[in-house]
């Protein structure tokens, strides 16, 4: 399926198995960026309506991707911004603890830790069990068991960012509903590459950086906030988030009303005339492909690698709990990770080190040549 690779401009001599670090830009996304820069040469080409129209289309596309209402989508500059918005609006008069999982991405951990410290609540970490067989199933059950009436919120990623462990969002969401616990989810490492449904999973807030699996530019992102946030406090008081913002002639007719839904949570200058057209082009392509198709493609692509790992003592998570586009490989004893990484670099095979494992992350630009190049280096390491 090499025609997918032609939609990107990756050098032919590299094997980039590292989309979780940063996605390469599609040619169509690059072109959207070029055209946006050219348009900015002459500001008369940018009309007042342009401050809102592209952003509205981007919200609509993201809403389709996560099965939400566009009015409940906000434009954010980063996952940390979106997480802070969700966590700072947690109720302070219910519950006594916030849950996170072990080795959660730092933005989620630090934001939850800071809020707990400020409001006298405890931060409880649900640690991954130190086993291999059945590890993810046990971990998921421990997370579900930890959700009780004392929980104000759980802050968790759709999959574990370091090793691709799948969290059972539907069952976790049901537990949160039962115990009136806010369900705050970081979708940065899967939304776009895996299907997700915020309504089905009872998610209260879903935040996504744009430069990984959404295939967009850096410093762009999107967030869904359920209706329980519709009267929350935004991080900043941007004029663009007020109800009368589109009428430039009456901006000083100050109003206490915000834009509908989650509009109050948009970052300042969300028009971002360079970045929004790029993110729009990326989302159009993702919706054309569909997350289901991407998952099926990378699942098939990775099978020779998974088979090799199982046959030669490399650890990989069990299939039902292993994300197809992102997973970790644990090294057998006798292999020095530093030496392996040096060999991978010399072979121009690009992966990431996260925690104790080698993180592999695949997309449509990857081919069997990439997989075989990686297997060759692993085989030599034995």
UniProtKB/TrEMBL annotation:
Pfam families listed in its UniProt record: Aminotran_5
Keywords assigned: Aminotransferase, Pyridoxal phosphate, Transferase
Keyword Transferase in annotation: yes
GO molecular function annotation: transaminase activity
InterPro entries named among the record's database cross-references: Aminotrans_V_dom (IPR000192), PyrdxlP-dep_Trfase (IPR015424), PyrdxlP-dep_Trfase_major (IPR015421), PyrdxlP-dep_Trfase_small (IPR015422)
Domain Aminotransferase class V residues, every copy: 57-374
Superkingdom of origin: Bacteria
PANTHER family to which the protein is assigned, alphabetical: BLR3095 PROTEIN (PTHR43586:SF15), CYSTEINE DESULFURASE (PTHR43586)
Name under which the protein is recorded: Aminotransferase
Source organism of the structure: Mongoliitalea lutea
């Amino acid at each position: 399926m090499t025609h997918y690779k032609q939609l990107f401009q990756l050098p032919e001599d590299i094997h980039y198995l590292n989309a979780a670090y940063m996605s390469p830009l599609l040619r169509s996304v690059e072109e959207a960026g070029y055209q946006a820069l050219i348009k900015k040469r002459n500001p008369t080409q940018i009309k007042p309506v342009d401050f809102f129209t592209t952003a509205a289309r981007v919200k609509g596309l993201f809403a389709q991707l996560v099965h939400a209402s566009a009015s409940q989508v906000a434009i954010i500059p980063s996952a940390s911004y979106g997480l802070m918005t969700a966590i700072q609006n947690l109720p302070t008069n219910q519950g006594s603890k916030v849950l996170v999982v072990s080795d959660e991405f730092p933005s989620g951990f630090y934001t939850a830790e800071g809020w707990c410290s400020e409001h006298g609540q405890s931060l409880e970490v649900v640690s991954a069990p130190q086993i291999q067989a059945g590890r993810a199933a046990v971990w998921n059950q421990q997370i579900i068991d930890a959700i009780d009436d004392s929980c104000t919120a759980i802050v968790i990623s759709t999959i574990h960012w370091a090793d691709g462990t799948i969290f059972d969002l539907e069952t976790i969401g049901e537990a949160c509903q039962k115990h009136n616990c806010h369900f705050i989810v970081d979708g940065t490492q899967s939304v776009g590459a895996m299907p997700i449904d915020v309504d089905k999973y009872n998610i209260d807030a879903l935040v996504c950086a744009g430069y990984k699996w959404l295939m967009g530019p850096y410093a762009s992102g999107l967030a869904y906030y359920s209706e329980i946030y519709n009267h929350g406090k935004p991080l900043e008081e941007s004029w663009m988030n007020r109800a009368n913002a589109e009428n430039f002639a009456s901006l000083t007719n100050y109003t206490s009303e915000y834009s509908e839904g989650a509009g109050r949570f948009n970052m300042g200058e969300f028009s971002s005339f360079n970045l929004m057209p790029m993110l729009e082009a990326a989302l159009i392509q993702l919706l054309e492909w569909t997350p289901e198709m991407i998952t099926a493609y990378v699942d098939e692509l990775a099978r020779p690698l998974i088979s090799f790992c199982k046959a030669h003592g490399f650890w990989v998570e069990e299939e039902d709990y292993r994300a197809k586009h992102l997973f970790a490989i644990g090294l057998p004893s006798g292999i020095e990770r530093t030496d392996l990484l040096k060999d991978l670099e010399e072979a121009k095979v690009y992966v990431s080190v996260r925690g104790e494992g080698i993180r592999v992350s695949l997309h449509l630009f990857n081919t069997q040549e990439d997989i075989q190049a990686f297997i060759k280096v692993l085989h030599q390491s034995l």
